[in-house]
Specification:
- By secondary structure, this protein is of the alpha/beta class.
- The chain is built from 16 helices and 20 strands.
- The strands form four sheets. An eight-stranded mixed beta sheet has the order 8-9-11-10-14-18-15-16, with helices on both faces. Strands 1, 2, 3, 4, 5, 6 and 7 form a seven-stranded mixed beta sheet that branches.
- A hairpin with a 5-residue loop joins strand 12 and strand 13.
- Helix 8 runs parallel beside helix 11 and helix 11 packs parallel to helix 16.
- The two termini are about 35 Å apart.
């Protein structure tokens, strides 16, 4: 992981591979952002003009390289776009700083040390820059080691992530600045842990392996863990999880992670969909839709990472994470369309489509979480393609049984830079899931499918418990090019939203 440090050193005398500065879009061309005064001075105040000559505009994510001026001990200046110049007397928002730092960190792959001279007005800015650096420097190369050892030229050319980032303009002795950077490191590292899990191939990350990794992390961070294997699931009557995993040689698991604080006054439960591979089951996915289905456990990865982050930060709130883990495969023992499952809650579900499996494992985990009467439950799942059609590939949907809580979750997501949008739960869509042979069917009307899935899940939330559902199908896995601090592949979306919800709850600011 990239090390983060604060420094008050003067930019010219700092030894590093590069110095990162910000450039914004001004009314008459690019402008040099605060924090880079020493660099601009070394260019005789003409740095903006030099950057414009090189084609820089200050657009978000834009990166421009130029040689460092005479007298600097760093050979390279890397100017990164911050987007539009803020209004008079306003500062750059945290997400602009986060994305700029991420773009710079991605560009500086292979560098040992870089100085970041981006705008810092307070500790929150320092934290945003640090978080952007850690997330932007991420790479997943666990499966390239053999190629390197065998002399594969392309693999040999793969460079290590930026090793150290020194933040200039921060206050090394200030408690708030130090805490902000420590938080950035903890949250960023755990989010990257989620990314690693999402990117792992399904032949190495089946439910049992996922549970084992959770067990190791729990032991390391003082988190209590309970793992229900297939025998315990049968004994407990977890028909949803068992039904989904019935067709696989890899047996399902239900993992409960419990972080507790002696000062906690509230209890949050996070529930994650953990389908380690989703073939669709008997309702097999068509060709072209299977290749990225290792990412169908992104919700469980986010919950896992959030609980560990809460423990690392020592938040004064109790957080329980439920990982509903199964592999959805077709075989002679697989659940068939038309089968009826008896869920952990006692309700029966007619399975009309085995590719609507995520709601089945979540239903059991939601009912188990409800039994503990937490103050609120938030589930996270790559649940429906319908949500991608509605909101695209970068925004997740939020549904809830309480409007105020839905708004609070939305505000938390926007605050940490995770695009989200509140979605309704229209009552008229519930009738479409009526079944002639069971209490409810796992499918309803095709139109509004993402909302139908939310209505299904609501049936398995305990009475009187505040609940929200995050459908992260769009942003969980980036099949396009990297941007900002977001890499290609697993993104770890929702981790920061969950951590922020835990922080707000600990502070008494969330209901």
């Amino acid at each position: 992981m990239t090390a983060l440090t604060l420094s008050t050193a003067a930019a010219p005398g700092l030894r590093a591979d590069a110095i990162v500065i910000g450039v914004a879009k001004g009314a008459k061309g690019p402008i040099v952002a605060p924090g880079a005064e020493a660099v601009d001075k070394a260019f005789d105040g003409r740095l903006a003009g030099v950057l414009e000559t090189l084609g820089a505009s200050g657009a978000e994510g834009e990166v421009t390289k130029l040689p460092a001026p005479a007298g600097f001990k760093t050979p390279l200046v890397l100017a990164v776009g911050l987007g539009s110049e803020p209004e008079k007397d306003a500062a750059f928002d945290a997400e602009a700083l986060r994305r700029a730092a991420g773009s710079a960190a991605r560009t500086l792959t292979g560098a040992k040390k870089a100085a970041f001279a981006l705008p810092v007005t307070d500790a929150a800015d320092a934290g945003a820059i640090g978080e952007g650096v850690v997330l932007g420097a991420y790479s997943f190369d666990a499966y390239k080691q053999t190629a390197r050892a065998n002399g594969d030229a392309k693999a040999k050319n793969d460079k290590a992530p930026l090793a150290e980032a020194v933040l200039l303009g921060g206050k090394p002795r200030d408690a708030a600045h130090k805490a902000a950077l420590a938080r950035a490191a903890a949250v960023g590292e755990e989010l990257n842990r989620a990314r690693d899990l999402i990117n792992m191939p399904p032949n190495d990350l089946d439910p049992e392996a996922f549970a084992a990794l959770a067990q190791t992390a729990a032991k390391e961070h003082g988190i209590k863990i309970q793992i229900l294997d297939e025998k315990a699931l049968v004994k407990g009557g977890y028909g949803g999880i068992l039904g989904v995993g019935a067709g696989s040689a890899s047996a399902p698991r239900l993992v409960k992670l419990s972080y507790t604080s002696s000062k906690a006054k509230k209890h949050l439960a996070f529930v994650g969909k953990g389908i380690t591979y989703d073939s669709g089951g008997i309702s097999l996915k068509p060709a072209g839709h299977n290749e990225t289905m290792k990412c169908d456990m992104s919700g469980a990865a986010a919950v896992f990472a959030a609980v560990v982050a809460a423990a690392r930060l020592g938040l004064e709130v109790n957080v329980t994470g439920w990982l509903a883990l199964a592999e959805n495969m077709p075989s002679g023992s697989a659940t068939r369309p038309g089968d009826v499952l008896r869920m952990y809650s006692g309700k029966t579900v007619e399975v009309l489509n085995t590719d609507a499996e995520g709601r089945l494992v979540l239903a059991d985990a939601l009912w188990a979480a409800s039994a503990e009467k937490p103050d609120a439950i938030v589930d996270v799942a790559t649940l429906t393609g319908a949500m991608m059609l509605a909101l695209g590939s970068r925004t997740f949907g939020i549904m809830a049984n309480d409007d105020a809580f839905r708004s609070a979750v939305h505000e938390a997501a926007e605050e940490v830079g995770e695009p989200a949008w509140p979605m309704p739960l229209p009552e008229h869509l519930r009738k479409g899931m009526d079944s002639t042979v069971a209490d409810i069917a796992n499918m309803g009307e095709r139109m509004g499918g993402g909302l139908v899935a939310g209505l299904f899940l609501r049936e398995f939330v305990g009475e009187g418990i505040t609940w929200a559902h995050l459908d992260i199908a769009g942003p969980a896995f980036n099949e396009g090019g990297a941007f900002g601090y977001t890499p290609k592949g697993g993104t770890g979306t929702a981790v920061r939203t969950l951590v922020r919800l835990a922080e707000l709850t600990a502070a008494g600011d969330l209901g």
